Amino acid sequence: QPQLAESGGGSVQAGGSLRLTCASPRSILSTFSTYDIAWYRQAPGKEREFVARITSGRSTIYADSVQGRFTISRDNGKKRVFLQMNHLKPEDTAVYSCTRDSYWGQGTQVTVSS
Q1: DSSP string spanning 4-39?
Q2: For the chain, what is the largest distance between any 2 Cα atoms, rounded to a whole number of angstroms?
Q3: In angstroms, rounded to a whole number, what is the distance separating the alpha carbons of residues 101 and 3?
Q4: Model confidence over 26-82: pLDDT tens digits?
Q5: What are phi and psi of 16, to 5 degrees?
Q6: pLDDT in tens, 1-20
Q7: What is the DSSP letter of 114?
Q8: DSSP conformational letter for 76
Q9: Is the dihedral of CA 54, 99, 30, 18 positive or negative?
Q10: 38 within 8 A of 105, measured Cβ to Cβ
Q11: Radius of gyration of the CA atoms of the chain, in A
């Protein structure tokens, strides 16, 4: 099992919504809540960019480009972090990956068509 595993990507039209999940199957339940976890994305031909972060204390921070459209949350009991993406735009098309410490998931593809 990987340290982190993303799911929930897909293809949607502009204005649509997707909910991404970052699972941490190898984490010990009692320690998962202590992790700060972030989402990043990488579009073809572009550098990886920060999307959102949630701290152990549930504080959140967002990139300006997604502020007001995306919401990051966590369910410590299920060892998962979510990224709710609303009002999607074609420029949101990318591979989305979650990360904590030095661990990265394999990513999940999000494609938004106009």
Answers
A1: -EEE--EEEETT--EEEEEE-TTS-HHHHTT--EEE
A2: 43
A3: 11
A4: 888 778 999 999 999 999 999 999 999 999 999 999 999 999 999 999 999 999 999
A5: -80, -175
A6: 778 999 999 999 999 999 99
A7: -
A8: G
A9: positive
A10: no
A11: 13
